[in-house]
Amino acid sequence: MVAPEPVVEGAGVHLRRSIGTRRLDNLDPFLLLDHFESASPADYKAGFPYHPHRGIETVTIVRTGEVRHRDSLEHRGTIGAGDIQWMTSGSGIMHEEMPQVRPEGIAGLQLWLNLPAREKMTRPKYRDLQADRLTEAKLGEGANVRVIAGEASGGRLLGPVEGLAVAPKFLDVTLLPGTAFRETVPRGHTAFAYVDHGDLRFGPEQTAVHGPALVVFGDGDIVEASAGTGGGRFLLAAARPLHEPIARYGPFVMNTRAEIEQTLQDLRTGNFIRDEARDE
Question: Could you tell me if 123 and 142 lie in one domain?
Answer without folding.
Answer: no
